[in-house]
């Protein structure tokens, strides 16, 4: 067993307070693959001081200089893709395909996207104004980096969801301290090593390994916090951020519904239901977690999905092509999955396939299809985050929409119909941050579109212009070039001037809104 301190350079991330270490387990085997320091509040404060000292130089690199580093990092990621995939698999137990498609594919795209788009999203904007008093002045909206961004990430996508948010934060000119989940810190450490090889100045990106307390300590220092994780922890982070009056962007849990209308291409719908509920063993915030199917096609849809799910291989990933469904990464998650299935069965649901933990080494749960489900069951209302798919029969599209919206969450959703106009009309009625018609989850790969949750699924969004502007403050600059000694409205006040101004305002604003 190699410790991460042995693998990484001396300068890495300060020291552990009190010397406690966190073991990192491979969930597919139960083996401890590494240990990382559990950094306490003092170590975090030292990292913050180093980050603040390093940030001005990084900001001074400008868009082009920073884009060069990110472009090199993009190439580094592709050159080291095998090593990164192996690291992700070793700490999550996910399949190699899940690591390649949803993590390497995402980050490869993200490095290039933010390197290219940052100057467009953050470049100075010249503004025109109808306000007569500023005629002739230069008006500029400027985005300036906030300084130090804290990124706190979950365990389900160590590259996409933890490290991924560092990319736009860095490209905006900030220093970043990333607190990865204690369960999956190794990918972040490896990426930080890669970034240094690509020329990122020392201490511009640091990884604060540790538990929840390390994340809480980080929130006490940074200028903005980007949090991805559960709604429960996200609420605590938002409270801490509010006390300090710093912005917080929160990407939280979900319970994404899929609606299958009776005119849907059932073969496509069944393939998408199977893949997007089981991919990453269901441990994706935008997994399909529940399906509502119109009555006329319910039986056929259920038969197709059951057959497809029954054919999936679950177990220890031994390389590409070995299994479809990997491990349950986080030990308590397995208890949640078991609890949701037991609760459903106890309330009258039937298990058509799966329904049990896989015996033997590692932490696996059988790909599971549940029917005869309703909203009295946890599997339909709480985030399961496992390889389970409850399917419910509905009378019609209106009932499907009502049930889909009957949730505290509102992250993603999907609608399947051959009538795309009807599908889109239904998508527009769903209370969620992203809705796909005849597809699922694909919106996440479109970095031009905002990705964020409604209701208890979050605040703010990643991706798109807002996904990088949130790492900046806005500064308004007004430059008066033709400068007279004084303006007409200044002292001394004279009744003639005041009458003139009153007439002028009436002329400008007295006719209501012009057509
Ligand atoms: P948690 O909320 O348990 O943890 C998220 C991160 O917060 C971890 O790094 C955790 O550290 C840290 N943390 C824990 N307590 C605190 C605290 N008091 N202050 C600051 N940080 C703290 O989430 P999970 O890791 O279990 O992730 C799964 C959840 O993430 C699911 O609900 C999922 O839906 C959601 N998610 C949302 C996404 C989105 O884009 N909306 C994407 C991916 C996941 P540690 O792990 O060391 O305890």
Structure, explained:
There is one protein chain. By secondary structure, the chain is of the alpha/beta class. It folds into 2 domains: 21-252 and 463-473, Aldehyde Dehydrogenase, Chain A, domain 1 (3-Layer(aba) Sandwich); 256-447, Aldehyde Dehydrogenase, Chain A, domain 2 (3-Layer(aba) Sandwich). Helices cover 41% and strands 18% of the residues. It contains 18 helices and 20 strands. The strands form 5 sheets. Strands 12-13-14-11-10-16-17 form a 7-stranded mixed sheet, sandwiched between helices. Strand 10 (256-260), helix 11 (266-278) and strand 11 (288-294) form a beta-alpha-beta unit. Helix 3 runs antiparallel to helix 5 and helix 4 runs antiparallel to helix 8. The chain is globular. It starts with a helix and ends in a 6-residue tail after the last helix. Residues 1-18 have low confidence and may be disordered. The structure holds NADPH dihydro-nicotinamide-adenine-dinucleotide phosphate (NDP). Residues 152-157, 161, 179, 181-183, 211-212, 215-216, 219, 228-230, 233, 236-237, 251-254, 285, 330, 383, 385, 411, 453, 458 line the site of NADPH dihydro-nicotinamide-adenine-dinucleotide phosphate.
% residues in beta strands: 15-25%
- Trace the largest sheet across and list its strands: 12-13-14-11-10-16-17
CATH homologous superfamily designation of the largest domain: Aldehyde Dehydrogenase, Chain A, domain 1
Characterize the overall form: globular
The CATH architecture category of the largest domain equals 3-Layer(aba) Sandwich
């Amino acid at each position: 067993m190699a410790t991460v301190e042995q693998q990484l350079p001396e300068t890495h991330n300060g020291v552990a307070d009190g010397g406690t270490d966190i073991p990192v387990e491979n969930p597919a085997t139960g083996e401890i693959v590494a240990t990382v320091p559990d950094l306490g509040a003092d170590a975090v404060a030292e990292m913050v001081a180093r980050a603040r000292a390093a940030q001005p130089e990084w900001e001074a690199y400008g868009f082009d200089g920073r884009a060069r580093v990110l472009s090199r990092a993009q190439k580094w990621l592709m050159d080291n893709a095998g090593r990164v995939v192996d690291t992700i698999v070793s700490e999550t137990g996910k399949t190699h395909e899940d690591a390649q498609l949803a993590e390497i594919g995402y980050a490869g795209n993200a490095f290039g996207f933010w390197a290219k788009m940052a100057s467009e999203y953050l470049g100075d904007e010249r503004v025109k104004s109808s306000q007569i008093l500023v005629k002739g002045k230069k008006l500029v909206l400027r985005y300036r980096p906030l300084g130090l961004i804290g990124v706190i990430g979950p365990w389900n996508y160590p590259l996409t969801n933890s490290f991924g948010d560092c990319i736009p934060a860095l490209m905006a000119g900030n220093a970043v301290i990333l607190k990865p989940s204690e369960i999956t810190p190794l990918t972040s450490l490896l990426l930080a090593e890669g970034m240094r090889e690509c020329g990122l100045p020392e201490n511009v990106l640091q990884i604060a390994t540790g538990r929840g307390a390390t994340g809480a300590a980080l929130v006490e220092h940074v200028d903005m916090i980007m949090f991805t994780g559960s709604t429960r922890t996200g609420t605590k982070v938002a409270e801490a951020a509010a006390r300090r009056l710093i912005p917080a962007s929160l990407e939280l849990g979900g319970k994404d519904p899929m609606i299958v209308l009776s005119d849907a291409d059932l073969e496509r719908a069944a393939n998408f239901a199977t893949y997007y509920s089981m991919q990453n063993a269901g441990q994706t915030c935008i997994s399909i977690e529940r399906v509502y199917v119109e009555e006329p096609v319910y039986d056929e849809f259920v038969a197709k999905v059951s057959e497809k799910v029954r054919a999936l291989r679950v177990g220890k990933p031994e390389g590409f092509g070995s299994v479809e469904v990997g491990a349950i990464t986080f030990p308590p998650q397995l208890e949640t999955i078991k609890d949701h299935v037991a609760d459903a069965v106890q309330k009258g649901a039937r298990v058509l396939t799966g329904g049990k933990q896989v015996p033997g080494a590692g932490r696996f749960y059988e790909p599971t299809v549940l029917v005869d489900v309703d909203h009295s069951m946890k599997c339909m209302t709480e985030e399961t985050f496992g390889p389970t798919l409850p399917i419910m029969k509905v009378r019609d599209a209106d009932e499907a929409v009502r049930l889909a919206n009957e949730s505290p969450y509102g992250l993603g959703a999907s609608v399947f119909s051959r009538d795309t106009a009807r599908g889109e009309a239904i998508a527009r009625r769903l209370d969620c941050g992203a809705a796909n018609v005849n597809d699922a989850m694909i919106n996440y790969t479109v970095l031009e579109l905002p990705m964020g949750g409604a209701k208890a699924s979050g605040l703010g969004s990643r991706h798109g212009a807002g996904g990088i502007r949130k790492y900046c403050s806005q500064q308004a600059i007004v430059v008066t070039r033709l400068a007279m000694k004084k303006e007409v409205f200044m002292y001394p006040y004279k009744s003639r001037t005041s009458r003139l101004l009153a007439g002028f305002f009436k002329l400008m604003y007295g006719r209501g809104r012009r057509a």
